[in-house]
Specification:
InterPro entries: Cas12f1-like_TNB, Transposase, Transposase_put_HTH
Helix content: 40-55%
Number of strands: 15
Number of domains: 2
Organism: [Mycobacterium] vasticus
Protein name: Transposase
Keywords: DNA recombination, DNA-binding, Metal-binding, Transposition, Zinc
Family: In the C-terminal section; belongs to the transposase 35 family.
Order of helices and strands: EHHHHEEEEEEEEEHHEHHHEEEHE
Strand content: 15-25%
Amino acid sequence: MLTGRRFRVEFTGEQTAFAERIGAACRAVWNTGLEQRREYRRRGAWMNYQPQARELAEAKTEHPWLRDVPGHCLQQTLMDLDRACREHGTFRVRWRSGRRWSPSFRFPEGNKMAVEKLNRRHSRIKLPKLGWVKLRMSRPLTGDIIRSATLTREGRHWFISVLVDDGRLTPEAHPAPGTAAGVDRGVVAAIATSDGALIDRAFTTAGERRRVVALQRTLSRSAKGSANRDRARAALAAIRARERRRRLDFCAQAAHQLAAANSVVVIEDLKTKQMTKSAKGTLEAPGRNVRAKSGLNRAILAKGWHQFALALGSAARYTGTAVVVVPAAYTSQRCSVCKEVDPKSRESQAVFRCIHCSHTEHADVNAAKNILAAGLAVTACEDQPRPAGRARSPKQEPAGNREELLLQPTIAAPAA
């Protein structure tokens, strides 16, 4: 199956300058193509990839700076633009700013790349026009078929993401059949499971948080375009990058542990993008509790709810785990014992005390048990919990009291 491998590259001075030129050319092609598409849409017409690719070939004969960079990277940029416009709409696709956008470009032809091991820690990969690029080999690539490679700059460092086909297939059955777990995502503990486990990790230290506050203060007081502002922005981006990598590592490890131990994992269908929208409103209809809502938004994004769902789907491909998605309505207000729904039972963020049966439990664990019960009701309609990538069974027998489930849940199997 297809999977990604990410490494940090060690460019030479000439390679760094050339990679910057490639990124700048791809950004220019993106912005020019987007402006052309928007102008066509204003006239009621359409512009697609094929005519833009022909015009790109003609532009390369007139502009030497386009001929110097790999042509497949420019063509891939137009393909990405075409897909973005089809999925989101031409006027919703964003420009790529020279100051805010991190240079990134893709080499789509993996058969033109080669990997050689230099020593225990380093290898090198051959890329078109860039030549041999040294990288820190944190994971082996032996036996994997390279499909494409994407170079991205983060701060002062460049990283390469290699898309490979590792030759593995999704198992027909999970090694531990009959096991299941419900997962509730929270803002205090990132993950709470139905067996009572609270999984969490601090992604920043106390010193880093103080440093962020100081850098934000310096950034707000610096003049735009000044050297002090650039240094403060770079230092702040370095701290945010470390936080982001720790969060990705935590989500990957937690997802792997849950997928390896359970044949069925049930999560809530949370629309994180809609949940973290700003509450400021407009001048005609200003929002309420804006400060509280912004704090909640930061807490949700800091815990990586959406990233964990993506990591769980990726890990499920290798274990045969069925990922079940259920509606989130009333899972935190329903008692996992008597099934009564009452908002008064949720005493605080961490305490759930049912006012009907006096059942007391951690609120997130109680919600995880309700999530698991809803997910098991879905799998009861089928012959057996299906692994990721397998077709759904046509059998649909009634299972339990459907009125308690409020809405019919669905199963989301990650793509192999």
